[in-house]
Design a protein that fits this description.
The chain is built from nine helices and 35 strands. With 658 residues, it is α+β, with helices and mostly antiparallel strands. It has an eleven-stranded mixed sheet with strand order 26-29-30-35-32-33-34-31-1-27-28. An eight-stranded parallel sheet has the order 2-14-17-18-19-20-21-22. Strands 3, 6, 7, 9, 10 and 12 form a six-stranded antiparallel sheet that branches. Bound molecules: alpha-L-arabinofuranose.
């Protein structure tokens, strides 16, 4: 991809002053004494869904695919290495005796010559780093003989890059561990597990984790990805989706209780995205639930985000089966919601609070809100929501509920749900918009005249989608024009922070070799990750939030697209700063004068963060991660005014002390 022209800021902005080309100076006025709506601390958050290999093969740092042989094809991801007929592997299903993890492999070594092993391919290969430590573990029991286990990490060029031995397998089911330090970096390595000496052993839960997980936790998360999430400083974290909550049918819905406790007891299920799109089929996509509700809560806690779990409300995906549970059988679903509050907030003496403590977090997670269903619609949703709301509000009146407004930002389904849920005095309506960039540009005023007395809005899933082209880079749909459109729109969300109280881009993560849906906020392969231009827009808004909206006007009107300019402003009580966001969507530089009108005396200089590109379709890749990335600059304030030129197609954040 062509190298993109970027701007050096401080002092150089003037070189883009196209005033000479008869661009009129745009005059913005910020009313610095006026305090508009408070901006909720949780305003800008993240939406996590296990789509695009976001969990297994992504954020969840486990490197072995199908570690417990529970995929529909029990040896998917595994290859038998059998030299001279040395051994066999038999998959045994113990059924009800271990209903959550019924299968294991019985390895029988017949000869002491040749060799027998199982090779695991990882998730589109295994990413291993030179000089980093990797921890291997396996559940095993001995049924006779002296079987020993040896592991070898093999690079893409077939060279051995790591190895370790385990002690002799003895007696009943025991967890055995070993580790190795890798000799080379490889994005497409695999792991061979060899069994030596005649005899028979049973094995299960074969696992390989990097030592360096996020915050060094066992069963932990991939550090680079978690750090990218933390760097967004998200106000909330919504999990676990998305449509994954609904399941294609109710049997395959997300059930949080199956995702907590010992990882060996978490019942694996299909990932509903595995064959959803024929052109991006991934039949090896399952949910091990190694990243389950405890880990989600812990991650939210670690990154300072309010947890926002979304639960199934007794309805499967209405694009798939549309199955619903009869109203008189909703109790199980409602009980799951009530128990979740206990799991998150309850005393350690309670059943679910006790489990939280046993898992390592005696302190409550301080859950304040919960979603009821994802993209549901029609009367069947409202009926079910009412049952949920009654039970939850009776027991936990302070928990706010997020309700669906359907899959689209307008239309019959949307209008019906808005009217019905307003009557129900719902706390939050979850609006989704996956639309063209033009929609975002044209909807920057969407909330200016929204009903102030109705439910608050959670802009729970949004992303500007450009049309397909023949470009083959996975990351190409995260173009600058889409990010610019989102930024323009987000000024409208911020201006209306009294109505729109939370917002999150979606989806969050995508593996370049295993995605189903794009655009996405962060791309990764087995070793690297990259923030898209859209990521940087989210980050710029989140880290420059402020505490109260301050009006900003151009010719007496809100600044929402006239002359290709969009703007919102806030004050930050903690830092005593004004934060002014100005988006220039024009392909040319625009001279502006920002008049800071009020009694508060501004300091003499401002800091500026700019995200810009002159290339509409610029995007970041794993190889070129900073084609579009924020740059810092600043300038002087004279006569209470900032006078500068906005770079073409730019998002600008001015911070002024006062
Ligand atoms: O973000 C991808 C999908 O888009 C979500 O799962 C769903 O809620 C929406 O349709």
């Amino acid at each position: 991809m062509k190298k993109l022209f970027t701007y050096a800021l401080t002092g150089l902005l003037c070189s883009f002053n196209f005033i000479g080309f008869a661009q009129q100076v745009k005059k913005l006025t910020v009313y610095t004494d006026t305090r508009g709506p408070a901006i909720p601390p949780a305003m800008w958050g993240i939406f996590f869904e296990d789509i695009n290999f976001s969990a297994d093969g992504g954020l969840y740092a486990e490197l072995i695919k199908n570690r417990s042989f529970e995929f529909a094809q029990p040896l998917m991801g595994w290859k038998t290495l059998n030299k001279d007929g040395a051994g066999t592997a038999l998959i045994i299903n113990r059924g009800e005796a271990n209903a959550n993890n019924p299968r294991f492999a019985r390895i029988n070594i017949k000869k002491d010559k040749g060799s027998f092993g199982l090779a695991n391919e990882g998730f589109r290969g295994m990413g291993l780093f030179k000089d980093k430590k990797y921890n291997f573990s396996i559940l095993a029991r001995n049924l006779g003989g002296n079987v020993k286990i040896r592991i070898e990490a093999i690079g893409a060029n077939n060279e051995k890059i790591g190895e370790a031995d385990l002690p002799l397998i003895k007696g009943e089911w025991t967890k055995y561990t070993t580790s190795f330090t890798c000799k080379a970096t490889d994005a497409k390595a695999h792991l061979n597990v060899y069994f030596e000496n005649p005899g028979t052993v049973d094995i299960d839960m074969v696992s390989l984790f990097p030592e360096d997980t996020y915050k060094g936790r066992a069963n932990g998360l991939r550090a680079d990805l978690a750090e990218k999430l933390a760097a967004l400083k998200p106000g909330f974290m919504r999990f676990p989706g998305g449509c994954i909550v609904e399941g294609r049918d109710l049997a395959n819905r997300y059930q949080w209780k199956k995702t907590v406790g010992d990882v060996a007891d978490r019942e694996l299920i299909i990932n509903r995205w595995n064959t959803e799109f024929a052109n991006r089929s991934a039949p090896d996509y399952f949910q091990s639930y190694g990243l389950g509700f405890f880990e989600y809560f812990q991650l939210a806690d670690d990154i300072g985000a309010e947890p926002l779990p979304i639960l199934n409300c007794g309805m499967a995906c209405q694009y798939n089966t549309g199955e619903v549970v009869p109203l008189d059988k909703e109790d199980t679903y409602i009980q799951d919601a009530l128990d979740l509050v206990e799991f998150a907030n309850g005393a350690t003496s309670t059943k679910w609070g006790g489990l939280r403590a046993a898992m390592g977090h005696p302190k409550p997670f301080n859950l304040k809100m919960m979603g009821v269903g994802n993209e549901q619609w029609d009367v069947q949703y409202v009926e079910r929501y009412k049952l949920f709301a009654k039970a939850l509000k009776d027991k936990y009146p302070d928990i706010k509920l997020v309700t669906s407004s359907g899959p689209s930002p307008d239309g019959d389904k949307f209008d019906y749900l808005h009217a019905e849920l307003t009557k129900e005095k719902a706390d939050f309506l979850d609006e989704h918009y996956y639309q063209a960039p033009e929609w975002f540009f044209n909807n920057a005023s969407r909330y200016d005249n929204y009903d102030r007395s109705g439910p608050k809005i959670f802009a729970g899933e949004y992303a500007a989608h450009i049309k397909d082209t023949k470009n083959t880079d996975a990351e190409y749909k995260n173009t600058w024009i889409s990010a610019l459109a989102e930024a323009a729109f987000m000024t409208g969300l911020e201006r209306n922070a009294d109505v729109v109280q939370m917002a999150s881009y979606a989806p969050l993560l995508a593996h370049v070799d295993a995605w189903q849906w794009r655009p996405d906020l962060i791309w990764f392969d087995n070793l690297r990750s990259v923030g898209t231009p859209n990521y940087y827009v989210q980050q710029i808004f989140s880290t420059n939030k402020g505490t109260n909206v301050v009006p900003v006007k151009m010719n007496g009107a809100v600044v929402a697209g006239k002359d290709s300019i969009y703007s919102s402003a806030s004050t930050d009580a903690a830092t005593h700063q004004l934060i002014i966001k100005v988006v220039n969507t024009s392909a040319t530089a625009q001279p502006v004068e920002i008049n800071l009108q009020g009694k508060a005396k501004p300091q003499k200089t401002y800091n500026l963060t700019v995200l810009s590109s002159t290339e509409k379709y610029a995007y970041n890749t794993l190889a070129e991660p900073t084609n579009v990335a924020p740059k810092q600059g600043g300038g002087g304030i004279a006569g209470g005014k900032i006078t500068t030129s906005l770079a073409p197609m730019s998002v600008n954040v001015f911070r002024v002390g006062y």
